Structure formats: structure tokens, C-alpha cells
Amino acid sequence: MIEAFVLVVVKPGYEEEVYNALKNANGRIKEIYRVYGEYDIILRVEVGSVEELDRFHDEVLRKIDHIEMTETLIASSYRG
Fold first, then answer.
1. How far is CA 9 from each of CA 42, 65, 69, 70, rounded to the nearest angstrom?
2. pTM, to two decimals
3. Is 79 among the domain residues?
4. HEC string of the chain?
5. In this structure, is residue 80 part of a structural domain?
6. What is the pLDDT of residues 30-52, one digit of tens each?
7. How far is the C-alpha of 67 from the C-alpha of 14, rounded, in Å?
8. Facing residues of 32 across strands?
9. Within a domain: residue 15?
10. Which domain holds residue 36?
């Protein structure tokens, strides 16, 4: 299992619209937060492979209007 954090920058004024679109997107998104600062939304995503993460980007993120930029951070380990 691969865990990744996706940092999302949204066109100003569309934060709520994009948040709702992501919240209703699919089961790969485990957590979603609106945040202050350089990024507008942070997602925690769980996928089975890097190829599945690629599909998530293609099938979900790139199809939602008003997302200006994303940065994906793949977690190297979890020590809860």
C-alpha cells in the first residue's frame, strides 16, 4: 500500500467547489482538509501502486476544474 499526500492549489474563489468535488470523488481519498497558506487543500490518498497513483491524478485531479497546481508527496514510512 502506498500512502501519498497531495497538496492542491485552487484558483481563488473556487476552494469550496473543488473541495466538494474532491470529497465526492472516490474511495482513494482517505482524508481531505482545507488549509491556510501556500496550498488550499491537502489530501491523504491510499493506493496499491504508483500506477494507481498515476490513474488517480489522471482520472480525478486533472478532471476537476479550477485546480491550478498539485504537489504529491509519497510517504516513505509511517511510525504511528
1. 9, 12, 5, 6
2. 0.91
3. no
4. CEEEEEEEEECCCCHHHHHHHHHCCCCCEEEEEECCCCCCEEEEEEECCHHHHHHHHHHCHHHCCCEEEEEEEECCCCCC
5. no
6. 999 999 999 999 999 999 999 99
7. 9
8. 43
9. yes
10. 2-74
